[in-house]
Amino acid sequence: MTLLEVNDLSIRYAVEDGSSVHAADDVSFTVERGETYGLVGESGCGKTTLAKSLVHLLDSNGYIESGEVWFDATLPAWEDDDGNPRREIVEDDSYPVRADGKTNLAALSTQQIRDIRWRDVALIPQSAMNALNPVYKVGDQIVEAILRHEPGTTKREADERARDLLERVGIEPDRADDYAHQFSGGMKQRAVIAMAMACGPDLLIADEPTTALDVIIQDRILEELEKLQEEFGVSILVISHDISVMAEICDRMAVMYGGKVMESGPKEDIFQRTANPYTLGLKNSFPTITQRNQSLVSIPGTPPTLRDPEEGCRFRDRCPFVVEECHASHPPMYDVESVESEGVRRESADQRSHRSACYRVDELEQIRTDATQEDTWTEQEIENR
Fold first, then answer.
1. Nearest-CA neighbor of 187 among 204, 171, 210, 167?
2. pLDDT per position as a tens digit, 332-349
3. Strands 252-257, 260-266: parallel, antiparallel or unpaired by DSSP?
4. In the chain, how many domains are there?
5. What are the distances in angstroms from CA 249 to CA 43, 191, 242, 334?
6. What pTM value is reported for the model?
7. The domain containing residue 160 runs over which residues?
8. Less Cβ crowding at N or C end of the chain, within 10 Å?
9. What's phi and psi for 57, nearest 5 deg?
10. 307 DSSP 8-state letter
11. 262 shares its domain with 350
C-alpha cells in the first residue's frame, strides 16, 4: 500500500536578481508502507531540498512551484468518530484531501503541517551534530516532541519513553540527562534517530544519516534503522550521495542529477541492469570489494547551474553518449523492461517499474560495455561528441 506519493514536484529558490534556482524539476516517486526508498546523487542535485519540502522546512526563499505530495495521514480535525475522512471535507475543494483519505502535504498551512511533523512524518536532518540544542538536555528535547504531539501524556511518561528510545538505539538511558556536547558523533546521530521515532511516525526521512561518521559507526547506524523499521513498521526515505549505503539499505531508489530523476526502480535493477549513463558513471566512481585492481573513474566536468537551466538533458554536457536529441529537451522516463524485451522505447508512469530518462535507452547493451572503459569518460572524448 502506498504511503507517500510525490507527483511532478518542482521546487525553486528565489534569488536577488529576480530569477530562480530550479532545485527540483517534475520529480515523481512513491514510497510504500514498510519499505525503504532511496534518493541518491551528487551534492547539489536536489535531494535535501526534496526532503525538506515534504515537511515545509525549506529556507525562507524556497518554495514549491508546482506538484503534489499525497500522504496517507489525516489531520485529527478531519476525521469522524471512526477515524475516516469526513465526507463534507472530502467533497470540499478548499481542503487538500482526496477521497481515499490521502492529504496533500504541499497544500497544508503552517499550522496544519506542524500537526503532521513528528507524529506522521519525522526528519533526521543532514547535520545531526548541529541538530541538538546545546543548552537542553538530550532527553528533555525528546520529551518536548512527545508532549507537543501527545498532550494527554504526562511528563513522567514522556521521560520514560525518551529513555527507552535512547536504549533502543544503543545509548544508556541515564545519558538522557547529558547535554549534546557530552555525546560523540555517533551517539548524537543515534539520539536524533531516537527523537525522530518519539511519536511513532509512519514515515522517517533520513537525510545523509551516515555523513561524517567512520565506516564502523555508519554500519551500526544503518543496522539501527533496519531494526526500527522491523519493530515499528516505519517507512524510510533515505537521502545520500553514497550509493554503497543505498545498496545496503534500500528496496527501491531513484538516481537524481541536476534536479531531475535520471533512473528509478528496484534496487537490484538499478545496480545489476543499470540503464542510464549518469548512474553508470556514478557506479564507476565507487570501489567494490568484488573487483581487484579496480580503477575508479570520475565523471569529468561539474554539475550544471540550476539558475534558469538550458533546455535539454541535464547530463548532456558530461555524458559520453550524448546525441543531437539530448540538446532539444530532457528525455522522459522510459520503461526499461519494454526496451529489453520488445526493443521499444515506451514512456512509463509506473513508479514501481525500472525506468530511465535517456534517449539511447534502446542501446543499453553497448552503452553498458562502453561505460566500463576509462577512455570513455575522458573530457576529450566527451568534447568530441
1. 171
2. 999 999 999 888 899 988
3. antiparallel
4. 2
5. 20, 20, 11, 25
6. 0.90
7. 128-199
8. N
9. -115, 25
10. B
11. yes
Report the sign of the C-alpha dihedral through residues 117, 219, 126, 163, in that order.
positive
What are the backbone angles phi and psi of residue 312, rounded to the nearest 5°? 105, 180
Tell me how far apart the alpha carbons of residues 55 and 3 are, in angstroms, rounded to a whole number.
15
Q: Nearest Cα to 53, choosing from 104, 128, 94, 129?
A: 104
User: Of the candidates 233, 245, 374, 353, which has an alpha carbon nearest to the alpha carbon of residue 298?
Assistant: 374
Q: What's 312's DSSP letter? A: S
pLDDT in tens, 223-271: 888 888 888 899 999 999 888 888 889 999 999 999 999 999 999 999 9
- Please report the DSSP string for 323-360 in residue order: -THHHHS----EEHHHHHHH----B---TTS-EE--TT
Q: Which residue has the cell 506542524?
A: 114
Q: Any residues with CB less than 8 A from the CB of 370 and at least 6 apart, and which?
A: 320, 321, 376
Question: Closest by alpha carbon to 7, among 59, 54, 41, 56?
Answer: 54
* Final residue of a structural domain among 166, 184, 199: 199
pLDDT in tens, 52-91: 999 999 999 999 999 999 998 755 555 666 766 565 555 5
